[in-house]
Design goal:
heterodimer; A: mainly alpha; Fumarate Reductase Cytochrome B subunit; globular; B: alpha+beta; four-stranded mixed beta sheet; 22 helices; 14 strands; about 15% strand; binds iron/sulfur cluster
């Protein structure tokens, strides 16, 4: 297999397979195995280090994901913002800080699972696989942020066009393969994570309870419609 | 007026013998699966004592229930956003206990030797050997214990003298408090659930937790001030008492009621005004008891009946409400009181306070039981009224006194009828002072001591067929029911 074909597997075959699996299995799981949707919290079993692991991780990863999403939806605005060095530094440093927060949270999380007998007892093989992939994802992200500077700019300029090309069903791998190795691994691993997603506890992201903020406090259900 | 029906309960504490039959009946039916071993949907605790989970009544610690402004103390709407990753007042397994079994093989495999072989305890969570440090009913019958009883949150308002009395060895006293979910009118668990997994059934008010919607955000566990929602650490879903609704729907009493050896349990329908729940739940502490009573409507009042019928309350439910033993105890006789109403969830399980043993005063070597005041033994009971008031009457001693006096008057009245050694004038005076007519006293006596199964449990038909009717042809439903697939509750993927 030559290099170009290999690239096509990684940058065309993999993303479509991953997204296809992700959507299909998530829907199937939601429709037929809804009981399995749970955040599977283990705070009940271990509450001493829970705060220091779960809170940094979630705040970190949510911010980082939001950053990726913004870059994905309005790449031009990001490039314009980065036009001035000071603003670029601010953005990069913020991203790095939240990336590190995620990484620290992630390590604390894994450490917590290893350290507490009770939490380890409720950790499945799939959990460990997911942690490994996720740790690689976060780790490679932080690595890129430190050693391949101005990621916010080349993400918007190089990676986002590729992602859009995937989403518009006209995949163009020409420029993305020019990225540094760490960045490429970050992208490929992201697709692996997406493909893995519906088989893991990560599905709790799909059921975050937003209606709570608007609903009335008490819930009454009647047998029939009423 | 928005009339709804609520299946409500009375536990007559004077009759509870602390046998735990109720707890085991429940456990054998509902909570013997992995992850539920530590759950006791029905538990019986010794009072004074710290209860289960430890110190559940201490809301400084668990932040359960509502404040007087009608806000959740644990995580209201705004707070849940920030706290969804880590709940600040979530109890842990250590507040309950780590479930265990024994390694029985060690008994069989032990080599011959001078010692008795022992089976060591192993944790049901990790499968490893553990040292048992707490268990269900760890403080059973330890009423006078300085380790357990002395930490009872209800003792907070007692004077040092009263505390000393409670723990003096000659006067040692305790009673039992069986607890299940109160199926509250203003349930904090329901209001706290971000996923709307918890709900109150419209027809009978049973509070249930939809296992398919629960996502382990665990907000209900701290929110319930009675700690009656339990997190299943294995399936990642919270579970709670379901008041044996499959039994209720088929006209049977819930398992803990059915099996109760002391026959302390009563179950019946109350009609209440759902429009006034919020108003009542935000009243000042002193007015709460009366306010909750006023929420319960007279099932004979034509106006109430008209409103109930207008609200589609079935005729059979109205009939059950008219025969409800709970209505008699709570509203007519005012003998039964709600536990910790100051948590403001408006519990619909009521307790008849127990008569404490007579507190004799010591005169040198003899114990003196006599006093001029007919109700002296209530005022100076070994369990201070203050204590019972904290537990059952949102701090109101008057309500507890009223309930105890009436019970005592009934006893003396019956004694004068059956034994005949009591001065009729004394009995009349007692009944008068206890706000009780001889007829009422007889009725209380009958329902308390002689009542049959059907008088204790007045269960209205479930009318599931009518619920089905609104969605499907009942005949069709009947033919289809029973087919399908049932998956066991397995953890995640
Ligand atoms: S006792 Fe607790 S679990 Fe039961 S309805 Fe009330 S608040 Fe909910
Ligand atoms: S079965 Fe009845 S008498 Fe026995 S502990 Fe339970 S409530 Fe009390």
């Amino acid at each position: 297999m030559n290099l170009a074909a290999f690239d096509r597997v990684l940058y065309v075959g993999l993303p479509y397979t991953a997204i296809f699996i992700c959507v299909l299995i998530s829907l199937q799981r939601y429709g037929w195995r809804i009981f399995t949707f749970s955040s599977l919290s283990s705070q009940f079993l271990e509450n001493r280090t829970h705060f220091w692991a779960l809170v940094p991780f979630h705040y970190g990863i949510l911010t980082v994901l939001l950053g990726h999403l913004i870059g994905f939806s309005v790449p031009r605005a990001v490039l314009a913002w980065n036009g001035r060095p000071l603003r670029l530094y601010i953005l990069e440093i913020t991203a790095l800080v939240f990336g590190l927060l995620t990484l620290i949270g992630m390590l604390a999380l894994i450490n917590r699972r290893l350290a507490s007998d009770k939490v380890r007892a409720v950790t499945s093989v799939m959990d460990w696989i997911m942690f490994a992939v996720l740790l690689f994802q976060v780790g490679s992200g932080v690595y890129v942020a430190v050693f391949n500077p101005w990621g916010s700019t080349w993400y918007a300029a190089v990676a986002v066009p590729y992602l859009w090309s995937v989403f518009t069903l006209a995949p163009n791998t020409a420029i993305v393969t020019q990225l540094p190795l760490a960045a490429q691994l970050h992208i490929i691993n992201a697709f692996i994570l997406i493909g893995l997603f519906p088989f893991t506890r990560l599905v709790h992201i799909l059921v975050v309870p937003n209606p709570y903020l608007w609903r009335r406090p008490q819930v009454v259900r009647w047998y029939g419609s009423r | 007026m928005n009339v709804r029906a609520q299946i409500s309960m009375v536990f007559h504490l004077d009759k509870c013998i602390g046998c735990h039959t109720c707890s085991l009946a429940c456990k054998n039916i509902w909570t013997d699966r992995p992850g539920t071993e530590y759950m006791w949907w029905n538990n019986v605790e010794t009072k004074p004592g710290t209860g289960y989970p430890t110190l559940w009544e201490d809301q400084q610690r668990y932040r359960g229930g509502w404040d007087a402004e009608g806000k959740l103390k644990s995580t209201g709407k705004a707070w849940i956003v920030a706290n969804i990753f880590h709940h600040p007042s979530m109890p842990t397994m250590d507040d309950y206990y780590e479930p265990w079994t024994y390694d029985y093989q060690e008994l069989f495999n032990a080599p011959e030797g001078p010692d008795q072989p022992t089976a060591r305890p192993i944790s049901l969570v990790t499968g490893k050997h553990i040292d048992i440090e707490a268990g269900p009913n760890w403080d059973d019958d330890l009423g006078g214990s300085p380790v357990y009883a002395a930490n009872d949150p209800n003792l907070a308002a007692l004077t040092p003298e009263q505390r000393r009395q409670l723990f003096a060895i000659e006067q040692l006293v305790f009673f039992y408090l069986p607890r299940i979910c109160n199926h509250c009118l203003n349930p904090a668990c329901v209001a706290a659930c971000p996923s709307a997994a918890l709900y109150k059934r419209g027809e009978d008010g049973i509070v249930l937790l939809d296992q398919k919607r629960c996502r382990a955000w665990r907000a209900c566990v701290p929110a319930c001030p009675y700690k009656k929602t339990y997190y299943n650490w294995s399936t990642g879903k919270t579970e709670k008492c379901i008041l044996c609704f499959p039994r209720i729907e088929t006209g049977q009493a819930p398992a803990c009621f059915h099996s109760c050896v002391g026959r302390i349990r009563y179950l019946g329908v109350l009609l209440y005004d759902a429009d006034r729940i919020h108003e009542v739940a935000t009243m000042p502490d002193e007015e709460l008891i009366e306010a909750q009573r006023s929420l319960i409507l007279d099932p004979f009042d034509p106006e109430v009946l008209a409103a109930a019928r207008g609200n589609n309350v079935p005729e059979s439910t109205i009939e059950a409400a008219q025969k409800s033993p709970v209505y008699q105890y709570v509203k007519v006789w005012k003998l039964a009181l709600p536990p910790h109403l100051e948590f403001r969830t408006l519990p619909m399980l009521f307790y008849v306070p127990s008569m404490a043993p007579v507190m004799a005063s010591r005169q040198g070597d003899t114990l003196d039981h006599l006093s001029q005041d007919l109700f002296h033994d209530i005022e100076q009971a070994r369990v201070p009224i203050r204590y019972l008031a904290n537990l059952l009457a949102a701090g109101s001693e008057a309500r507890v006194r009223y309930a105890l006096r009436k019970q005592k008057a009934v006893r003396w009245h019956r004694r004068s009828v059956t034994v005949g050694d009591v001065d009729a004038e004394v009995v009349r005076r007692m009944l008068r002072e206890a706000d009780c007519s001889p007829e009422e006293a007889d009725a209380i006596y009958r329902l308390t001591a002689l009542s049959t199964f059907d008088e204790r449990f007045v269960i209205p038909p479930g009318h599931r067929e009518m619920g089905v009717e609104t969605q499907q042809d009942p005949l069709m439903h009947k033919q289809q029911a029973g087919f399908g697939f049932i998956a066991g509750p397995r953890r995640g993927l």
